[in-house]
UniProtKB/TrEMBL annotation:
UniProt cross-references to Gene3D superfamilies, sorted A to Z: Aspartate Aminotransferase, domain 1 (3.90.1150.10), Type I PLP-dependent aspartate aminotransferase-like (Major domain) (3.40.640.10)
Entry keyword set: Pyridoxal phosphate, Transferase
Name used for this protein in its record: 8-amino-7-oxononanoate synthase
Molecular functions (GO terms): pyridoxal phosphate binding; transferase activity
Pfam families linked to this entry: Aminotran_1_2 (PF00155)
Family: Belongs to the class-II pyridoxal-phosphate-dependent aminotransferase family. BioF subfamily.
InterPro entries: Aminotrans_II_pyridoxalP_BS, Aminotransferase_I/II_large, AON_synthase_class-II, PyrdxlP-dep_Trfase, PyrdxlP-dep_Trfase_major, PyrdxlP-dep_Trfase_small
């Protein structure tokens, strides 16, 4: 008993230290009637009356079909799958969904997972063989890190975010002070020179990137990355994995994603599409070759040892994908991109009007590439609470989710947002900014200097 008490005390001390650094995470419930500028439901399909109606009709049709085919009037099994897919949890709907979704995204095969986290962990932990290497964007998702830790890869090497080749500066090629500051090409070149297996093609290099990065909302330069990998690994032993979690549904024709929009389906080894963001349901799929699919069925532990998604989940995936495939989401996409532009313009106008110290507020002037607009501030909790109190749900993002000095609120736009809501959020941020400037007695330190030394935004 004393041992348990001692452990609880340790937990309390750890949590107290985190709270003292303003890093303590807490569960909260979104107040009713708040304008959503926080969730990842970019197309607002979960609140669409059409989608809800089609989903309920799909559930009812399953109940009716099961009742009609049962001599005992037995109800359909809607709430549970009965086990893992390798036991009793597989279904014809699971397999038909995999085929249909793969075909929609121009892939040869696909395997459903219960979540994007499970999909990344399963893929990155099982695919690399002993002696292989994983090279990944330094801002890759936490699920990829967990998968890599469980893998048999001999090395895991980060490369400078969204950088295929070394960047040119006024003084020439950018200097590198650490591995993380190296471009992808520099790392691959070193691996080829120093590793005989990689040079000969008997060892593999897995390259992990995201389509859209959730904290900055920027899009990976995928075409350049693909060309870089093909050039430096001409033996064909470079395997690119693209996590399309935040690009599914919003980028490319009918939301097929970044890979399809660039025509790179045959040059990217594996893709991960999740359903919990723009698709407004749950689960994920790894798109790959038939051989890779069969390998994952046998070796991806997050697939093998987890309960299969129930019919209710499969039906929601089916409903939202049919909505996307039919083109019904196109008006929503158009409205979404319109308000993304409007929101960015309004936020930039605040910076121009008040010229704040960028430690108080900074917005990247570059046109957004996604519905995610980061608003950098050293006081993210204060700004988020001010807006939340006025009915606008935005969330503070602090370390360790983002590096120290890159704290922010993340404004996520949705097809369900109105222009009036966007204007209201901008006004709330502006009112908070006026109060912050008044507290500091003006603009504070030189903005140009702080723009370089504090946030170092990528523009």
């Amino acid at each position: 008993m004393s041992q348990v008490k001692g452990l609880e005390k340790t937990f309390q001390e750890i949590l107290a230290r985190r709270e003292a650094k303003s890093r303590l995470r807490r569960l909260t419930v979104v107040p009713p009637n708040s304008a959503d500028f926080s969730s990842n439901s970019y197309l607002s399909l979960s609140t669409s009356e059409d989608v809800q109606r089609e989903y309920l009709q799909r559930l009812q049709s399953e109940v009716d079909a099961a009742t009609a085919s049962s001599s005992h009037g037995q109800s359909a099994s809607l709430l549970g799958s009965g086990g893992s897919r390798l036991l009793d949890g597989n279904s014809s709907l699971s397999e038909s969904l995999e085929r249909e979704i793969a075909a929609f995204h121009g892939a040869k095969a696909g395997l459903l997972f219960s979540s994007g986290f499970d999909a990344n962990v399963g893929l990155f932990s099982s695919a690399p063989q002993p002696g292989d290497v994983i090279v990944y964007d330094e801002l890759i998702h936490a699920s990829v890190h967990d998968g890599m830790k469980l893998s048999r890869a001999s090395k895991r090497i980060p490369f400078l975010h969204n950088t295929a080749y070394p960047r040119e500066t006024a003084g020439g090629v950018q200097a590198a002070s650490s591995t993380t500051n190296l471009a992808l090409s520099s790392i691959l070149d070193t691996l080829v020179r120093e590793n005989e297996g990689i040079r000969s093609g008997t060892r593999n290099v897995f390259i992990g990137v995201e389509g859209v990065y959730s904290m900055d909302g920027d899009v990976t330069p995928l075409k350049e990355i693909v060309e870089c990998v093909e050039k430096l690994l001409p033996k064909g032993n470079g395997y690119i994995i693209v996590d399309e979690a935040h690009s599914t549904g919003i980028i490319g024709e009918r939301g097929r994603g970044l890979v399809c929009s660039l025509g790179l389906e045959d040059r990217v080894w594996a893709r991960l599409h999740t359903f919990g963001k723009a698709m407004s349901c749950a689960g994920a799929i790894v798109l790959c070759s038939p051989a890779t699919r069969e390998y994952l069925v046998n070796y991806a532990r997050t697939f093998i040892y987890t309960t299969a998604p129930p019919f209710t989940t499969l039906a929601s995936i089916e409903t939202t994908y049919q909505y996307l495939m039919s083109g019904k989401a196109e008006p929503r996409l158009k409205h979404l991109w319109d308000i993304v532009e409007q929101a960015h313009t309004l936020l930039l106008s605040l910076c121009e009007r008040y010229n704040p110290d960028p430690r108080i507020l900074y917005v990247n002037p570059r046109k957004p590439e996604s519905p995610i607009i980061p608003v950098l501030t050293s006081r993210p909790r204060s700004l988020a609470k001010y807006c939340q109190d006025r009915g606008y749900m935005i969330r503070p993002i602090v370390a360790p989710t983002v590096p120290l000095g890159k704290e922010r609120v993340r404004v996520c736009l949705h097809a369900g947002n109105t222009l009036e809501e966007v204007r209201g959020l901008s006004e709330a941020i502006g009112a908070w900014l006026v109060l912050e400037i008044a507290k500091k007695g003006g603009r504070g330190n030189d903005s140009a200097k702080n723009r370089e030394t504090t946030f170092k935004p990528r523009i």
